[in-house]
Design brief:
By secondary structure, the chain is of the alpha/beta class. About 50% of the residues lie in helices and about 15% in strands. Helix 1 packs parallel to helix 2.
Length: about 120
């Protein structure tokens, strides 16, 4: 979901409710940390993968996103992006989200109720 600024991004996050966000920090007319905090303010709680052509910025922004904004930043990448590595990261993130979802469903199920699995008698 492309966005021109932090306000558009926040609105898009509220409307689309993404599971994961990849964010290129090289944005015109806006500070990357401002965008990261706007992502959090929009209610996003999923993983954020940060991408930048400025290798020296990535660790700093990853740390700030995690510490100052409280976001889950499982990975960061330098440009040019290795598409194979990005696919691997997204596959890992998708697996983690699926595991979390299954864990949460199990916690929410009342004791003795089915968790969606069907048992068959022989």
């Amino acid at each position: 979901m492309p966005a021109a600024d932090a306000t558009e991004m926040a609105a898009a996050i509220r409307n689309w409710r993404p599971n994961v966000i990849t964010l290129d920090l090289c944005l015109p007319n806006i500070d990357g940390l401002e965008v990261i905090c706007a992502i959090k303010d929009a209610g996003f709680t999923g993983p954020l993968i940060i991408i930048s052509g400025q290798a020296e910025w990535i660790r700093d922004f990853t740390s700030k996103a995690a510490v100052e904004c409280g976001l889950n930043v499982p990975a960061h990448m330098s440009k040019p992006v290795d598409l194979r590595r990005l696919r691997e990261l997204l596959t890992d993130v998708r697996g983690s989200l699926r595991d979390l979802s299954m864990s949460e469903e199990h916690k929410e199920a009342p004791e003795g109720s089915s968790t969606g699995k069907t048992a068959r008698a022989a």
